[in-house]
Amino acid sequence: MAPSEPRQTKFVLDESHIPRAWYNIVADLPVPPSPPLHPGTGQPIGPDDLAPLFPMALIGQEVSTEREIEIPEPVRDAYRLYRPSPLYRAHRLERALDTPAHIYYKYEGGSPSGSHKPNTAIAQAFFNKEQGVKRLATETGAGQWGSALAFAGAMFGLEVKVYMVRASYDQKPYRRILMETYGAEVVASPSLTTNYGRTVLAVTPDTPGSLGMAISEAVEDAATRDDTKYALGSVLNHVLLHQTVIGQEALEQMSMAGESPDIVIGCTGGGSNFAGLTFPFLGRNFRDGAKHRVIAAEPEAAPSLTRGVYAYDFGDTGKMTPLVKMYTLGSDFIPEPIHAGGLRYHGMSPLVSLLKQHDLIEARSVHQRSSFAAGVTFARAEGILPAPEPTHAIRVAIDEALAAKEAGESRVILFNLCGHGHFDLSAYEQYLAGTLEDYEYPLERVEAALAGLPQV
Amino acid sequence: MAPSEPRQTKFVLDESHIPRAWYNIVADLPVPPSPPLHPGTGQPIGPDDLAPLFPMALIGQEVSTEREIEIPEPVRDAYRLYRPSPLYRAHRLERALDTPAHIYYKYEGGSPSGSHKPNTAIAQAFFNKEQGVKRLATETGAGQWGSALAFAGAMFGLEVKVYMVRASYDQKPYRRILMETYGAEVVASPSLTTNYGRTVLAVTPDTPGSLGMAISEAVEDAATRDDTKYALGSVLNHVLLHQTVIGQEALEQMSMAGESPDIVIGCTGGGSNFAGLTFPFLGRNFRDGAKHRVIAAEPEAAPSLTRGVYAYDFGDTGKMTPLVKMYTLGSDFIPEPIHAGGLRYHGMSPLVSLLKQHDLIEARSVHQRSSFAAGVTFARAEGILPAPEPTHAIRVAIDEALAAKEAGESRVILFNLCGHGHFDLSAYEQYLAGTLEDYEYPLERVEAALAGLPQV
């Protein structure tokens, strides 16, 4: 850094600063996580139950209590293509809001596939490759995760098969073509290539599909082929673990800026980008008595942390996964079709849920019109067009900056800008045209879904 | 840099390394440029002829012979949002090609609007704002330039009106929505808002429009409103000047890598990204006796440098601009509809043309199928999805790397990856499906257009 630069905007690190270990928050939690349960027996599941789906290295990470897990050099080498990501001081947004708050954001949209998802896709591809796996099967909704895994597959020479929710397959052809350009095979889900898909199509040939159906197809694909494993883009402990490179870099970059965030914000769907930024800061809270306030920003259309219950539930609508203890709206609950497809999930990562249950983090829900308003304000001030998901974090960051102005305090705010919105412009068009819908909280549908919670 | 990093991929600079001056190659040219001529009188034009369209600061830069032109601090401050851009060593592409060549690329796609265009859009917006201009009018084809000027207008509080070629307006709605999200007003050209547009529509109401028509509308808009000036995204000396931040940073980054490029490559349409990377290297050739080979990669569908003539011609199809000395295919020539819309231009920047005429640079033309093949190879190796325009540079870089392999020589190759292809995926889909067309060189159409060259 040159001290002569009057108004530093960007805090960049060269690749020697890519973290050498992932940070495992389980080592520092004040209470231990509840184990996943077998849905048939109600007993905790073991590694063997997961072996058909995941390589042993990832299963080991899923249950590890070690604080640091070394990042293998081939993973760090692929991270060099886009990491460390930059951290920005949002001078222009501060000026637009006329706030004394200092606003910072970590930008993960500069990765090849445009979001934070490659942080775990690369790691998952590597550990599968190392175990001799030839092919990965996964599902994708809006396409961020499928794009990331297709990219990671190309980096490590793995075949990738993506079951893409039919509605998105038809509406977002660009995401599909991006995956195909990386060499992945993409089919609309439900498809004719699995028993589950054929069963669904026999009954409802015109179904638009759902993430739950696509998960079931990808899991069946992996479970029935010896050369294939399954990959998931959020929710699980090892996925959140891989994302902690974000927060570790941000800690170093905030030090470069000479500040420490009073408030750290991430949007939450399954929880992975939120965890990636905030877990290393929470670790400071737990170990060093730091006092970072941490806020999860979720959509009003899927408000698991703010309106759900903390209970054992299935991770998928098909009720095929183990039972996990989490905030949930009920696995039968299908959220309204908001544009932040990455946040349309009935549950929440067990680790994030545990933190909320013990009041170690806060949560706030946001309507989509208000999120897009924040996204447009951000784009006009800072230039970067945010994806719909992180506009929820931007909304909360702006609200906190305005609260700081009201209080006359110079608070330091940090949020995660987890992806760009280049494939989401039709949503911006609807917002600008005034035709974007907000959805009332569907109390009756959630109560119905919660009534069906499994009895454990 | 940590010397312990075994295989450095990315060479990053913090923002104190943003250049403090633009590099004006005119100061180092072995021969002086030919002046633009007034089409009526055939005499060199003066600053007053341009004053209705451009602020005086830019007119001064257009004719300057100073080697360095200071970058104002507000421009550097906006550059901080994305500059310095990273320079990459393409280890994975080298491995895929099994070449002893070292391949480097400068990546300009990380700017908010996704290409190198903001380097000049920001500068043009600043100098207009400084002169009290309230509003800018411009044209755009595929939308890279319009997006950049819309972004720059938002940064400096200027209104921006974009005349977008009707065919692109209908086919590329995402680019239009991006401009509108930045706050610009976008109309399909020809439009009903100008006399020229109304005249065209009265005769051909169903016309798909052309860049030439859109230029005429934007120029009329600027010339007839006191609060408005015109902005152009390539071709002119001051536009190329602003892009030289690219090459100046690359010089420093190649030094960090401990290498000097034997070959420097850029794609050429109007010439601005090519000039941005290569002019600072050519300056070393002229002043210090360096021996960088410099190659311009142009489309076979608009091969002005490789097949055109060096002559005075109009810059637009409407024959409203001054006459400039350049390589041209004739201002009546309309290139085939290749997907690299940014390279579909009948002429070439006068400065780039002069360099070619005196054998100070080389030129090579490339078919689009071959370009897209190079783009897909690149994406699968390096992750970044290139825009159609820089796939021409990638094609030439790969060919040079394979030639180095054939010769058994470890040559150092550097090219400019001037933008990402997130808005161009339908072209990739056509390539992957095998339906992308190559176009034969249209000899008769070019000969007809050249027969109409103005007599000076």
Question: What do you see in this structure?
Answer:
The structure is a homodimer of 456-residue chains. With 456 residues, chain A is of the alpha/beta class. The first copy, chain A, has a domain at 10-20 and 71-114 and 238-450: Rossmann fold. Helices cover 42% and strands 16% of the residues of chain A. Chain A is built from 19 helices and 15 strands. A 7-stranded mixed β-sheet of chain A has the order 1-4-5-15-10-11-14, sandwiched between helices. Chain A has a 4-stranded parallel β-sheet with strand order 8-7-6-9, with helices on both faces. In chain A, α6 links the parallel β6 (135-140) and β7. In chain A, α2 (56-63) packs across α11, α5 (118-130) packs across α11 and α12 crosses α13. Chain A is globular. The model of chain A has no long low-confidence stretch (mean pLDDT 94). At the A-B interface, β1, α6, α8, α16 and α18 of A face β1, α6, α8, α16 and α18 of B.
